[in-house]
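User: C-alpha cells for this one?
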Amino acid sequence: MPPMRWALGQRVMSARRLLETSDRSIEQIAAATGFGAGANLRHIFRRRTGFTPTAYRRSNAAQGAR
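Assistant:
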C-alpha cells in the first residue's frame, strides 16, 4: 500500500474515533484530522466508509443506545 494511501486511512480512522467519542462539529474534526475543511472530510469519509460523517455518527449513537 502506498504511504499516502495508508496515511489517508489513518486520518479517516482518527475522524471515525472522534465522531464516535466527541460532540465536535464536522468542521472541527476535519481540522483536527488534517482534512482542512469539512467538505474534504465528507468527500473522503463517504468514499472510504460508504457513510457521510453525520450518518456515521447517528448510526453509532443508535448502536450505543441499545
